[in-house]
UniProtKB/TrEMBL annotation:
It is found in: Secreted. NCBIfam families: ascorbase. InterPro entries: Cu-oxidase-like_N, Cu-oxidase_2nd, Cu-oxidase_C, Cu-oxidase_fam, Cu_oxidase_CS, Cu_oxidase_Cu_BS, Cupredoxin, CuRO_3_AAO. Gene3D superfamilies: Cupredoxins - blue copper proteins. This is L-ascorbate oxidase. Pfam families: Cu-oxidase, Cu-oxidase_2, Cu-oxidase_3. The gene is LOC103325800. CDD domains: CuRO_3_AAO.
């Protein structure tokens, strides 16, 4: 009997130890990663021209977030801008169970007021390459952005091999302040932001200071010898393979990215594995991320240019330059060749071909529902409202409310005081609208109404591009969906045909993404499940375009959202609510 009791005690102890070890393993694998950030203005010279930039702990780009799938990220953000609100969006992170941490001012939270500290807390639920950036006004243009890298869990492998991992953020850079640009966009007569002065690779570019050599220019404003604007150098070891996580956070520009003499193999897009394909030019649009593999297999006795150029808009911006350096040779020495200015900026065909080439890896296919419950067609047009220039969808230009939608809906506020209860239109006059011509009537209306979707239903979005208010002009628009990934079912040229083009959908191996372009005079078809409770923005990722109304908002299952933290409140109808 004593032996039996001793054996039972030993078994219980063994089970307890096993349980404790499992808890310990779980704790190790799912860490809580704390970041303490201060956002403030500082003078910076990323392209040799000194201007005020919004920094995080003195840096632009901001600190890189490194995590593992399943980790919890906690960012304690202090707003030291003194005269400006702020909010940060975690681009590509779905915020499952934490929609109030999405960081979209006017949609999921009130902005963070000057002097206040706000805590973002969320789980990174999937490995991949992601971004973060300001989501208040057009502050992203001022330098408030950075990257997020989420590695796979311990014991899991990826469908490709590499020796080293590097992150590269591409951006365009304007010398005018965001205030000047926003004022111009909101004025009569309209003042366009113009083309960027520089392209930055990991926060570094080069502006030709001689263009500003005037007596009125303050001494030292543009200094070509400033180390802040020395080219970014990517040092590689001969024979090794590198994973480059390339993200674009441009405010206006679509870009190509090249590495002289080296092929790139595309293996990941927006956190999803891609059936690998090779390219010399990677076309990348604002809000997208790609992982490419390169092998350092060229002549190691010299350096090579890394270049980025504007496409889809007539370039008025110099090539962005960095240096690929073979260790241990000439670290900062310029390559002996001239940097390429290719590809042709107005050749849409190769850009469309690359979009079509991005398909799900054969071992990581997430099959889409074969049919949808709702179809929303969004005609992208440029319009006027009372003489002001706007962007519109189905002739309705979007505006943000003073009280964020998530708070208004979850707290059961008097919605008639918060936002328009009439939803936006779900289609346009397909039969009569000529997408190749300036509209006969360019006037539109404004609304902050939203689409309220039935929870867990499948929704198709058809993005239809058209002519702007300029003759023979149609622009590329990168569209980003918050809170979800979507299946990219197809791209096409011309006007989408509901009867014919649906039959061309890729339902076999479509890639899932969170950001996708609609090409000039073309269409893009998406499908997503409205299965993440909350209120989510879907908008053009070009700063000026969203600022001018190019976006919509989806709500689904808001009643399933947990209790909102009071820290997201304090504006609009919630001014009297407690805010610590």
């Amino acid at each position: 009997m004593v032996e039996i009791l001793a054996y039972r005690s030993w078994v219980k102890l063994l089970v307890l130890c096993h349980f404790i070890s499992l808890v310990a393993i779980s704790t190790v694998e799912a860490r809580i990663r704390h970041y303490r950030w201060e956002v403030k203005y500082e003078y910076k010279s990323p392209d040799c021209f000194k201007k005020l930039a919004i920094t995080i702990n003195g840096e632009t780009p901001g600190p890189k977030i490194l995590a593992q799938q399943g980790d919890t990220i906690v960012v304690e953000l202090k707003n030291s801008l003194i005269t400006e609100n702020v909010a940060i969006h975690w681009h590509g992170i779905r915020q499952i169970g934490t929609p109030w941490s999405d960081g979209t001012e006017g949609v999921t939270q009130c902005p963070i007021f000057p002097g206040d500290t706000f805590i973002y807390k969320f789980v990174v639920d999937r490995a991949g390459s992601y971004l973060y950036h300001a989501h208040y006004g057009i502050q992203r243009e001022a330098g408030l952005y950075g990257s997020i890298t989420v590695s796979v869990p311990n014991g899991e492998s990826e469908p490709f091999a590499y020796d080293y991992d590097r992150s590269i953020i591409l951006n365009d850079w304007f010398h005018k302040s965001t205030y000047e640009q926003a004022a111009g966009l909101s004025s009569i007569p309209f003042v366009w932001v113009g083309e960027p002065q520089s392209l930055l690779i990991n926060g570094r570019g080069r502006f030709n200071c001689s263009l500003l050599a005037t007596p009125s220019l303050e001494a030292g404003v543009c200094n070509a010898t400033n180390p802040e604007c020395s080219p970014y150098v990517l040092t590689v070891i001969p024979g090794k393979t590198y994973r480059l996580r390339i993200g674009s956070l441009t405010s206006l520009s679509a870009l190509s990215f090249q590495i002289e003499g080296h092929n790139m193999t595309v293996v990941e897009a927006d956190g999803h594995y891609v059936e690998p394909f090779q390219t010399k030019n990677l076309y990348i649009y604002s809000g997208e991320t790609y992982s490419v593999l390169i092998t350092a297999n060229q002549d190691p006795s010299r350096n090579y240019w890394v270049t980025t150029n504007v496409v889809s808009r007539k370039p008025a911006t110099p090539t962005g330059l960095a240096i690929l350096n073979y260790y241990p040779k000439y670290f900062k020495k310029s390559p002996p060749t001239l940097p390429t200015t290719d590809p042709l900026w107005n050749d849409t065909a190769p850009r469309l071909a690359q979009s079509l080439a991005v398909k799900a890896h054969k071992s990581f296919i997430h099959s889409p529902p074969l049919t949808s419950d709702k179809v929303i067609v969004l005609l992208n047009t440029q319009n006027k409202i009372d003489g002001y220039y706007r962007w519109s969808l189905n002739n309705v230009s979007f505006s943000l409310p003073h009280t964020p939608y998530l708070i208004a809906l979850k707290e059961n506020l008097n919605l008639n005081h918060v936002f328009d209860q009439t939803p936006p239109p779900e289609n346009y006059d397909f039969k009569n609208y000529d997408i190749y011509a300036v509209a006969e009537n360019v006037n539109a209306t404004s609304s902050n109404g939203i689409y309220r979707l039935k929870f867990n239903t499948t929704v198709d979005i058809i993005l239809q591009n058209a002519n702007t208010m300029t003759v023979n002009n149609s622009e590329t628009h990168p569209w980003h969906l918050h809170g979800h990934d979507f299946w990219v079912l197809g791209y096409g040229t011309g006007k989408f045909d509901m009867m014919k083009d649906v039959g061309k959908y890729n339902l076999v191996n479509p890639i899932m993404k969170n950001t996708v372009p609609v090409h000039p005079y073309g269409w893009t078809a998406l499908r997503f499940r409205a299965d993440n409770p909350g209120v989510w923005a879907f908008h053009c990722h070009l700063e000026s375009h969203f600022y001018m109304g190019m976006g919509v908002v989806f709500e689904a299952g808001v009643e399933k959202v947990g209790k909102l933290p009071s820290s997201v409140m304090g504006c609009g109808e919630t001014k009297g609510f407690h805010r610590p």
